[in-house]
Design a protein that fits this description.
- The chain is α+β, with helices and mostly antiparallel strands.
- Among the domains are: 347 residues, Orthogonal Bundle (Transferase(Phosphotransferase), domain 1); 90 residues, no CATH class.
- It contains 31 helices and 11 strands.
- The chain has a 6-stranded antiparallel sheet, covered by helices on one side. A 3-stranded antiparallel sheet has the order 7-9-10.
- The longest helix is centred in the middle third of the chain and has 63 residues.
- About 5% of the residues have low confidence.
């Protein structure tokens, strides 16, 4: 048991010489409430006053460790049959009135009924030679729970675990039919067993039994007398009404204790309780709603820093920790209406455990429905009249609205029918113009096709506005027509406008257009992957970049074309045509190292193809230079060239690819036998030229020098007379074959003309 340093009634600091454990103010109140002259025995100067060293029965008093209004607690030593330290509580001399003795015996019996590790156990009982009763309990070497938590700076979660044990102890008492009625920090001591804190509930001096009698003596509460400590007292205890006290009074006290463990203060200001009259204190307990714990923290001012430090956290973090679940749990305990509190102490403990386990808790703020029901009960007649008027207004408004919608729907259907008819006429007219534009484009009438497509677009814009897929498609068609007319920059701008209608970012497309118009100086590959919002738009912009690449190549802008095709391959790694075009450009511009790395990547990506057309393109792209590295994948591709029928449209190109593979493998005689009897591709100058160049180099390798020179001269003549020249304008659609022809011509002239 701990030495009392505070008033057991109001919690105020006690002077050093305070009598009977009460402050002067509470002592005066107790005298008014209890001290009836008829009840007090006459002065007995010969009554023995117990002091250290006194022997009472089997117990020797060692030290006074606590004192209340009517009893005193000693640490004593049991002499027999075992020796141990115990706590012995005895009524003070001169205070043994009938009521006090009855309450003392009730406390003794209440403790004897309970057996819980967190409740101080009763060990023995008896009476002194003078007839004053005493009882013996286990000695709890502890301090009040709030002091223990602050001294050891326990964080909030550890305080909650101690609180759960207290709830379980109170639940045990309730199951035994005992209501404590005075739960407060001084009646909950914390000791340590093996370094672990163990709370103990003590002092059942004002406990009440449910459904049983704790003593044969009459115990009753004096009329208009409160039982308990005001700061921790439930509203029904303070009301002094006919409402019987039940276990939910202890739930309220537990809520006050939890409030203090969290914030360091009680819900009501202790100074106010010390200064106000008892009736005002009772009114505050019954009617004043306390602030939530998190709100109360904000009013502590400078003290908040010390409170947070005692909980090993920062002031702001402490507020966030308490706000929410813990606010709701505490405020449910402190409900004025006990029906809204937790039904049991175990229910309170379970909700705290749910909070610690991050599970949903039962406690919640009062619902809107609950608040509404309260308002209805207070103003039921006014609300009934208002509801009647509102219902009449709603019915009238509903009828008017229904008639309005009927009329509006009729007008809307008429307007919709007229608009649909007009739209169908314009759609038919626009579709006709677009069809005529496409037909003129295919027939090569580019000027007429452009005029028709522009007229169709104007109708679409007038009819549909700007943001429609049909307009985007029409713009792409117009861009292609303008491109074929040689106006590349205008074509690109039209493509960009079409893409903007497909929800691409306007600023991104503007930047892309500017970069493409300058020749593609930006790193387009990484740029596209960072700005494009969806796959559909990415596909469209890849097409736009490919148009730029093709335009550079057809105009002979080889450096720009090579750089842009490299970016296109980065953006579209699955496009074999872009990869083959880049391979030809790398050889043509002299970047042999990059070419060989690129060919390795091409074969890794497309080397497993079974398509003969793609196979011949890969073979011709990856064998443009001698000593092209690993020829095994190319050998596998060569087998694909044997499957198509002889009348396949690309049969002559298959022959050319097979001949190039044989030449790179050193089978020169096989090349000569393949091409000397019949030279394929009489109508295609690039195909015939490459075939003649392969034949010339094979003849040279076979030491048939005159024949090789004659074949080379024939190839040079075709190049000079039939192949387009860069200086004369665009190279046309077959520019890749034009580049491959120039590469093979350069190799053949070096080989044949060097000798």
């Amino acid at each position: 048991m701990a030495v009392q340093s505070r008033c057991e009634e109001c919690g105020a600091e006690l002077p050093a010489n305070a009598p009977q454990g009460l402050c002067p103010k509470c002592l005066a109140r107790a005298a008014v409430a209890f001290a009836k002259p008829s009840d007090l025995p006459p002065a007995q100067p010969d009554v023995l006053i117990e002091r250290p060293g006194t022997i009472i029965g089997r117990y020797k008093l060692l030290e006074k460790i606590g004192e209340g209004g009517f009893g005193v607690v000693f640490m004593a030593e049991q002499i027999e049959p075992v020796q141990r330290k115990v706590a012995l509580k005895i009524i003070k001399a001169g205070m043994d009135t009938r009521e006090v003795i009855a309450r003392f015996e009730a406390e003794r019996q209440a403790i004897a009924l309970m057996d819980h590790p967190n409740i101080a156990r009763a060990l023995d009982a008896g009476a002194t030679e003078g007839g004053r009763p005493y009882f013996v309990m286990e000695l709890v070497r502890g301090i009040p729970i709030t002091e223990y938590c602050d001294q050891n700076q326990l964080p909030t979660h550890e305080r909650l675990r101690l609180f759960i044990k207290i709830c379980q102890a109170v639940q045990h008492a309730h199951q035994k039919g005992i209501i404590h009625r005075d739960l407060k920090p001084r009646n909950i001591l914390v000791t340590e067993h093996d370094g672990q804190p163990v709370p103990k509930v003590i002092d059942f001096g004002v406990a009440k039994a449910l459904g049983q009698k704790l003593t044969e003596k009459t115990v009753f509460t004096a009329f208009h007398h409160m039982i308990g400590t005001p700061a921790y007292m439930s509203p029904e205890q303070a009301a002094l009404s006919g409402v019987d006290i039940d276990t939910r009074a202890d739930i309220y006290s537990l809520g006050v204790l939890l409030y203090e463990l969290l914030t360091g203060v009680t819900p009501f200001n202790a100074n106010t309780f010390r200064e106000e009259a008892m009736d005002e204190i009772r009114r505050m307990i019954r009617e004043t709603e306390p602030s939530k714990p998190s709100t109360r923290l904000q009013s502590l001012g400078e003290k908040l820093t010390d409170v947070a430090k005692q909980r090993r956290t920062e002031p702001a973090a402490l507020g966030r920790l308490i706000r929410g679940d813990l606010d709701w749990i505490v405020m449910r305990c402190l409900e004025k209406d006990r029906r809204r509190r937790y039904e049991t102490a175990n229910g309170l403990a379970t909700d705290v455990e749910r909070h610690l386990g991050s599970e949903p808790i039962i406690a919640r703020p009062p619902s809107n429905l609950y608040r509404f029901q309260k308002v209805v009960r207070r103003h039921k007649f006014a609300l009934a009249a208002f509801a009647s008027v509102a219902l009449a207004l709603l019915l009238g408004l509903g009828c008017s609205t229904w008639l309005f919608f009927l009329e509006r729907d009729a007008r809307r259907r008429a307007v919709t029918s007229e608009k649909l008819e007009r739209d169908l006429r314009k759609k038919a007219q626009t579709s006709e113009l677009s069809a005529r534009a496409l037909l003129s484009w295919k027939e090569g009438k580019l000027e007429e096709a452009e005029s028709l497509q522009q007229e169709a677009l104007a109708l679409w814009r007038e009819h549909l506005g700007q943001n429609r897929p049909q307009i985007a498609t029409g713009l792409e068609t117009l861009a292609a027509i303008v491109r074929d007319r040689g106006r590349l920059d205008e074509s690109i701008r039209l493509y960009v406008e079409a893409l903007k209608l497909q929800n691409s970012g306007e600023s991104d497309l503007k930047r892309l257009n500017q970069e493409l118009s300058r020749g593609g100086s930006v790193e387009i590959g990484s740029y596209l992957n960072s700005v494009l919002p969806d796959a559909g738009t990415r596909s469209q912009l890849k097409s736009l970049l490919k148009e730029r690449c093709l335009a550079d190549a057809r105009q002979g802008q080889w450096r720009n074309a090579t750089a842009n095709f490299a970016r296109l391959v980065e953006v579209s790694p699955g496009d074999p045509d872009a990869g083959n075009a880049l391979a030809a450009l790398l050889v043509f511009t002299g970047d042999e190292a990059y070419y060989r790395r690129h060919c390795t990547v091409l074969l890794e990506r497309f080397g497993d193809t079974k398509d003969p057309v793609q196979s011949q393109a890969l073979i011709r792209s990856c064998l443009l230079l001698p000593k092209s590295g690993n020829l095994v994948p190319l050998g596998k591709l060569s087998t694909n060239l044997q499957t198509p029928p002889p009348d396949h449209w690309a049969a002559n190109w298959f022959q050319l690819a097979a001949g190039l593979a044989e030449y790179r493998e050193g089978h020169f005689a096989d090349v000569a036998r393949r091409f000397e009897p019949v030279l394929p591709g009489d109508s295609l100058p690039e195909l015939k030229t490459q075939t003649l160049l392969l034949l010339a180099m094979s003849q040279h390798q076979l030491k048939r020098i005159p024949a090789a020179r004659a074949t080379l001269a024939q190839a040079i003549e075709i190049v000079e007379t039939k192949l387009p020249k860069v200086e004369n304008g665009l190279l046309g659609l077959d520019w890749v074959e034009w580049v491959q022809t120039r590469v093979l011509l350069r190799e053949a002239r070096i080989l044949v003309e060097s000798n």
